[in-house]
Amino acid sequence: MDTQELLERESFIELDARSRAKKLLDAGTFRELLDPFERVSSPWLARQGIVTQADDGTVVAKGEIDGQPAVVLGIDGGFQGGSMGEVSAAKIAGSLELAAEDNRNGIPTRAVILFETGGVRLQEANLGLAAIAEIHAAIVDLRRYQPVIGITAGPIGCYGGMSIAAALCTYLIATREARLGLNGPAVIEQEAGIAEFDSRDRPMIWSFTGGEQRYRTGLVDAYAGDDTGAIRAAMIERFRAGRPDACRSERVEEFLQRLSEVDAHAQPTPQQVAAIYAKEFLS
Question: For the residues 206-210, what does the mean pLDDT come to?
């Protein structure tokens, strides 16, 4: 990339959740629902001595994408690590449910979820987990009608129950800076030991769970640079492609075959994992 291209590029990662949503929607169509002035915040954090945020860390934006009705759900990684509590997760689940209802009523509303999250908010564990389960169900419902696109860009990554939500999306877009995994590096190290996963070894972490590796292994559908225009273009391209014959979560046997080839007795290299996942398996 030359100097002029660098100057013209707009970093997506450096934008906050609200700005990301606005940039992904068609110009002039952004309208926020339950914005910070509504003061819909967590009822539980203040009781634990934690300062709340007026939107509880989730932005719900309606508008159009490529001329079609759309909702963009942006998770603010700067608030409580993008964790999902009762309110923030309910905002996402409710929006997806309304989008599905739109489709049943003849309004082809599509959805985009911006994943910057460590998963459930520990201070609201059971409530957050229940709401995340509702997000999963809502994604599966909506994707019958319209593609649900997930985008994970960085720097927080996408972990925990929300990584399952990402996996349920029709398509997933990631940048080189993104990370995607069920458990975070520190959790893996705590449970399995530093020999299994060193949470301080950043190159190793990205080599296994970074956006580029996830794209190589087919767990991500599009790999984009940290450029707002490139990410928006990748998103529109996937919407235009429509629903695939089978979403990732519907290809269970195929992925189980791949997992069966990974030797759990020895630490595989990223190259070995990519080679296994690149194979074609017969159903």
Answer: 95
